[in-house]
Amino acid sequence: MAKLDINSKLRMLSGYEIPVLGYGVYQTPADVTEDVVQHAFKAGYRHVDSARVYRNEGPCSDAIKASGIPRSEIFFTSKVPPGKMGYEDTKASIESSFKQTGLDYIDLYLIHAPYGGRAARLGSWRALIEAQKAGKIRSLGVSNYGVHHLDELEAYITELEVEHGKGKGGEISVGQWEVHPWLQRRDIVDWCNERGVVVEAYCPLVRGKRFEEPALQKLAKTYKKTPAQVLVRWSLQKGFVPLPKSVTHSRIEENANVYDFELSDEDIKTLDTNEYSPCAWDPTTSRD
For the chain, is the Cβ count within 10 Å smaller at the N or the C terminus? Predict the structure, then answer.
């Protein structure tokens, strides 16, 4: 694999690039968000993952503007709220994101979860395509979709292309899921890999719940790294875009300090499990 560093990026189907390490702000209180995002920038991160429901898009944007880093070098993500699915509600959500942030464009906008039924899911996608065509959003994607939801969206994209012409149905550039050694989602990852869809991994540190696992402890001791650093490195070497989150300055730095070691194939195999153990919600199983 190509040598990774803090500036490594992946090219998406949209043609744009995404930094391979992201900083997540899920449940980060609005009053500390600007400070921690600024600290993430100082630590070398150039990718911030927010969402409408996190209620911290504005402070993220304040940090972007105050950073002194050119906007073109920072990658910012937001997401359609699960309770605001459908064409009109998604249009309104996108507009709210721009009012909250004051940004000229948003790099990536995801559908946060596959709730609301087929018509709502497809209506949300249509609103995202329109925003992309208008230059407001650069790349599109989904989060927490099961393979059946992905198949449904792929069929809709094909339908739109037949009706309106090639490229008119949008493209799934990114999919975001909880992914770590105890929830590897091989069926979803295979679906994405076959199509060139970038896989983002939230909860890559499993909220610290598996740090005492013997296989993880062994690797941490071998490489003189923390269990968190080993898990971020595992995610990167799997080809994912991990989104570690912390509001502690030292841990924000620690989670980015993962480029001076490399796990061997054997090491990665020791973290292989067939567990299906989410530490967060799991909308992939939704059948509405």
Answer: N
Whole-prediction pTM? 0.97
- What is the Cβ-side half-sphere exposure of residue 224, based on CA atoms within 13 angstroms? 1
Catalytic residue list: 54
Quote the pLDDT of residue 78.
98
- Tokens representing residue 75 in the block: 């990658």
Q: Which pLDDT tens digit goes with each residue over 184-224?
A: 999 999 999 999 999 999 999 999 999 999 999 999 999 99
**Measured in whole angstroms, how far is the alpha carbon of residue 5 from the centre of its chain?**
18
pLDDT of the residue at 1: 60
Alpha carbons 22 and 274: distance in angstroms, whole number: 26
**Strand-pair partners of 47:** 75
Closest to 54 measured CA to CA, from 93, 22, 19, 16: 93
Which H or E element spans position 127? helix 118-133
* Averaged pLDDT, 258-274: 97
